[in-house]
Design goal:
With 137 residues, this protein is mainly beta. The protein is built from two helices and eight strands.
Amino acid sequence: MRTQYSILILLLFCLCGCLIPVSEMELTSSILTTGGEGAVFKRIPQSGSFKLEDIIHLLTTLRWEDVESGAGVHEMVHKWYAGEELISRIKFDACFYRTPYEIRSEITASSLGVGSHRVELYIDDILFDQRDFEVVE
């Protein structure tokens, strides 16, 4: 079992490339969107506010200098706040296998309620992206 675990780690390392630190990554875009209507997801930034029936998506795109290699496996945490209260914390590891790399997170507006809100993205415990927004009735 231990050998299988070691092989899995080695395979992930080979697929994802060397670990590139967050300090060497650049935020290239950050948008909040509903994804539009219909079957095709649309990357149209939402300006102003969201409605209670919306699903809110945070799309964060980042890049690093070496386009020939991946940036390795990094821990990501999305934190969604209603005012100052933490409503949702989503934690996972991801293999940054190519640049540019897009990170997505979503939440229903109704789970936040009406008011001022914030979403934060941490990569390896470093605040990388943050957006403020409103939910209205």
